[in-house]
Amino acid sequence: MSTGTVDGSSESAVEVSELAAEKALALMDSEGMDQDVGGLRLFVQQGGCAGLSYGMRFDNEPEADDTVTVHHGLRVFVDPASLDYIGGSRLEYEDGLQAAGFHVENPNVVSECGCGESFRT
Question: The Core domain covers which part of the protein (predicted)?
Answer without folding.
Answer: 15-117
